Amino acid sequence: MTVVRIPTQLRELTGGAGEVDLEGATVRELLAALDAAHPGFGERIAEPDGSLRRFVNIFVAEEDIRFLDGVDTVVGPGQVVSIVPAVAGG
Amino acid sequence: MAFVSALKCRECGREYPIEPSYTCSWCFGPLEVAYDYDAIRDRTSRERIAAGPANIWRYADLLPSDHHPAIDLGAGFTPLVRADRLAAELGLGEVWVKNDTLNPTNSFKDRVVNVALAKALEFGFEVAACASTGNLANSVAAHAARAGLESYVFVPANLEAGKIVTTAVYGGNLVAVDGNYDDVNRLCAELAGTYPWAFVNVNVRPYYAEGSKTLAFETAEQLGWTTPDHVVVPIASGSQLTKIHKGFHELHTVGLLDEEPQVRVSGAQALGCSPVASAFIEGRDVIKPVKPDTIAKSLAIGNPADGYFAIDAVRSTGGGMAAVTDEEIVEGIRLLARTEGIFAETAGGVTIATLQKLAASGVIRADERVVVYITGHGLKTLDAVAEVVGPTATIRPTIEAFHDAFPALQESTR
Asked: In B4-154, where does DSSP find H-type helix?
């Protein structure tokens, strides 16, 4: 099982839970499992063509998946996946 | 009372109530403050502004929070100085420097923090927090100290020593995070879901970001209620550039400018962290995040959330962008100091080097009135120039020693 951290904005879909345990070998599989377990997730974080919305960031073990293999990034045992809205600052 | 009507998603247009919230819960797009411009137009006037305080609160009608004296250190209304010697070096005509090094903690961040924490007090927060590359850290720590708020400031552990000291001195909590700014930012975005604090650049960010509009308001007022033809603005997250562009247009919307402004907006990045400039120059629509490696640490945001809006502003106004090397940044700092007597931090070096590049390539023209935004003080990043400037002579304390050294000194500064 992999822990996926849910941002505040999407916790209405998880019954308030900040973390969910899911099965999946890659980010893509985990997101599919998330949508299956909590219907509505997919359309919230992805465009109709399946690509991630541009203000959605996903991290595997604290690394942005755009530096890895995108949604095809393999999630190893014990690695935590975080879904985080883009934030600017300085 | 501020004339705010709602928070509105910049991506999908959904509206939300005025509360501590920063992303659209539908599409994750950033939320922006929406105003009742008709009401502002009825209230505001050039005379009303001129009678206001000599700080950002003279524009309170166009800001999302009310003036809160407890938190006010006097941010804003910094000098706009004509820079003829700089212009002459670059072959330009009319150049002005907005010297925002002269803020309470010596960077433009005092504008945004003042607005953000005034709103945080309205919301009833008791703790101020932020993720910072340094300037924001200084400003949050100082404003929180003045307001008697607790503060938690998160910075990359490898920050310049000067920026650590100038944050820690205010006595709040300073948490050095073993990672780069984007790591710190991601951490704070997650912490904001757990800790009931006002993270100025996370959950009160829509209000925070509006503070940068005052850079445009002041520029227009200081130019006698006219606008520049061209502005050059550094890009970290892209928020400041986007808000300066917005600020000029708001002045027209509420009747403070007679004509629709035609301000070309250009953006400046360091080559070692140029995700926005690279996308712009290559004509891409997708901004690829990068791992920053530049001396311009205050601009070292590898994953800039407002980058798309910055590109839109630059493209729609016919501006340009450039990415400059660390050597060019140092030379930019020295050029501004040597010609105008203004000592900028590395971000200012990026801006001046970009001005130089865009002037040389013809993007910025000699017939334009240009304003460059110098947003942080050189004393914050002394290391950047410590190796390349120093005494022009070292002598014994005698008249003869100076007399002997004098010819060489005259030669070296000629």
From this structure: 37-43, 46-50, 84-90, 109-123, 135-147
State whether B28 and A9 contact (CB < 8 Å).
Answer: yes
- Across the interface, of A7, A12, A64, the residue whose CB is closest to B289 is A64
pLDDT tens digits, residue range B12-36?
Answer: 999 999 999 998 988 888 999 999 9
Residue B158: is its pLDDT beyond 90? no
Chain B residue with Cα closest to A9: B25
Q: Do B30 and A5 touch (CB under 8 A)?
A: no
Rounded to the nearest angstrom, the minimum Cα separation between B83 and chain A is 28
Would residue B407 count as lying in a domain? no
B148 and B222 in one domain? no
Q: Into how many domains does chain A fold?
A: 1
Q: How far apart are CA B307 and CA B287, in angstroms?
A: 7
pTM: 0.94
* Structure tokens given for B59: 């524009």
Among A66, A67, A88, the residue with its CB nearest the CB of B238 is: A88
Mean pLDDT throughout B383-407?
A: 95
B139 and B88 inside one domain: no
Contact assessment for residue A45 and residue A7, using Cβ atoms and an 8 Å cutoff: no
Q: Which one of B236, B286, B303 has the shortest CB-CB distance to A90?
A: B236
Q: Enumerate the residues of chain B whose CB falls inside 8 A of the CB of residue A54.
A: 286, 308
Coil vs helix vs strand at A11: helix
Closest residue to A55, CB basis, from B29, B192, B193: B29
**Are both B297 and B260 inside the same structural domain?**
yes
3-state helix, strand, coil in chain B (%, to 5): 45, 15, 40
Position B305 confidence tier, pLDDT thresholds 50, 70, 90: confident
Number of domains in chain B: 2
With an 8 Å Cβ cutoff, are A62 and B306 in contact?
no
Judge whether residue B1 has pLDDT over 70: no
Q: Do B238 and A84 touch (CB under 8 A)?
A: no
- Å between B5 CA and nearest CA of chain A: 21
A90 part of a folded domain: no
Task: Quick: pLDDT tens for B237-287.
Answer: 999 999 999 999 999 999 999 999 999 999 999 999 999 999 999 998 889
Query: What chain B residue is nearest to A53 in terms of C-alpha separation?
Result: B27
> How far from B232 is each of A59, B246, B347, B348, CA to CA, in Å?
34, 14, 12, 10
Within 10 angstroms of residue B116's Cβ, the number of other Cβ atoms is 33
